[in-house]
Q: What sequence folds into this?
């Protein structure tokens, strides 16, 4: 791989669906890296292109992963609020009902999918 100093990188999509990372560097002797790791002659001054078949790495928001659970059928479950403190004034039946998990509302499913892109969630 070519090393650069003071480079600016930009992502560009190509016609075949792959993603290309293009660098503009001030170093004129930087070789051009093409698909497969082969190096082409440094005819373009200061330009380095790296072809990536995969896009960005999908990452799960760890805070969301601790708060939501996906069932086997693809529904997203969450905890009920109001069960953390001030429990003396709440009746036993009310506290018992707050202990059960509930399904996330349809309006919030897209937010959960954005935070947990690798989860098998059905809408």
A:
């Amino acid at each position: 791989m070519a090393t650069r100093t003071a480079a600016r990188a930009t992502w560009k999509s190509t016609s075949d669906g792959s993603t290309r990372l293009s660098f503009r560097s001030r170093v004129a002797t930087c070789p051009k890296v093409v698909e497969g790791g082969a190096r082409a002659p440094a005819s373009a001054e200061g330009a380095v292109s790296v072809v990536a078949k995969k896009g960005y790495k999908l990452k799960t928001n760890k805070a969301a992963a601790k708060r939501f659970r996906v069932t086997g059928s693809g529904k997203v479950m969450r905890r009920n609020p109001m069960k953390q403190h001030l429990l003396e004034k709440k009746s036993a039946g009310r506290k018992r009902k707050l202990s059960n998990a509930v399904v996330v509302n349809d309006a919030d499913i897209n937010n959960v999918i954005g935070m947990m892109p690798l989860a098998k969630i059905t809408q």
User: Anything to note?
Assistant: Strands lie at 8-13, 19-24, 32-33, 39-40, 47-52, 69-70, 76-78, 102-103. The two ends are 43 Å apart (CA to CA). The mean pLDDT is 79. Residues 20 and 68 are 35 Å apart (CA to CA).
